Amino acid sequence: MNKLSVFDELRQNAYPGRGIVIGRSKDGKKAVTAYFIMGRSENSRNRVFVEDGEGIRTQAFDPAKLEDPSLIIYAPVRVLGNKTIVTNGDQTDTIYDGMDRQLTFEQSLRVREFEPDPPNYTPRISGIMHVENGKYSYAMSILKSANGDPSACNRYTFAYNNAIAGEGRFIHTYARNENPLPSFEGEPKWVDIPDMDIDTFTNEIWTSLNEDNKVSLFVRYIDIETGKYESRIVNKNK
Known about the structure:
Glutamine Phosphoribosylpyrophosphate, subunit 1, domain 1, 6-stranded antiparallel sheet, 238 residues
């Protein structure tokens, strides 16, 4: 596997859908995550990210135009103690509640499947970052249909212990922009986490996303020694 540029990956794909990047800064001091959403329909594009406690939630930009909130209004990011949960749907709450009951990340997701949105059957992608006492590990998950067959759900979990400085993983919902939309394939992409401050990294991801389809972006840098964090939100709708 070759290490990729997340910026190049985004520039080359007009519609990766929703995506999660998790990794470690080049200097080793920060746990890094980014989550973006895109949309092709008016309903999907009618969204913004807003702060919600230590996390974020999606919100209709124009409530009058909101058609079906079931798959577009949710909390993508929540914090449970020293764990930061990032997902592309309401399974954020499922993971939060499960881990609060001492279930593992993987166990918490066993009650969930891909999204009920034929013919795409959008995968549920999730990530969890564990920062404690100067140590940092993370895991990612994808729940997807069996090559477009909704009668079966394929479940994959990838764990990255002792996250390595200057690299991360990138997972997104759709492999490419087709109809129906094909699901992401393989393990999360191995990507470079460049030597950038949070504002530069945020700007580079945002400008790499397709101008017509991008909707919102969230980025967080967590200090691995102290657990303190700083975040950025960018919304196309203003």
